[in-house]
Amino acid sequence: MAKYLISFPSAAMVVPEGEWDAVVRDSHAVIEEAKAAGVYVFGGGIDASVPPVLVAADGAVAEGGYPWAPPLNGGFTVLEIPSREQAIAWAARLAKACRCDQELRVFGFDPQS
């Protein structure tokens, strides 16, 4: 089975006023279903109130992330699923619940991890 990252950037969450409670309820319901199905690994969101730092190999720390890369923000869920088709189905359920498209990526298998 492969692990899939289902994610969205913060800017994708354009939720009409008054619908946030429904988004929270619906997205948590999908996560509970994933847990019950035994496919949930972990999930969460990037805490935008804590700025990133870039840590070099020598331990030097610089404020901010890679200056050339778009900021990493938003929410994510990792599921372990037997097929890409099933991963797409879960991503579609999360997209419906979150009211925004979800990006789907597969983690490369590393037997040492």
Automatic annotation (TrEMBL):
InterPro entries: Dimeric_a/b-barrel (IPR011008). Gene3D superfamilies: Dimeric alpha+beta barrel. This is Transcription initiation protein.
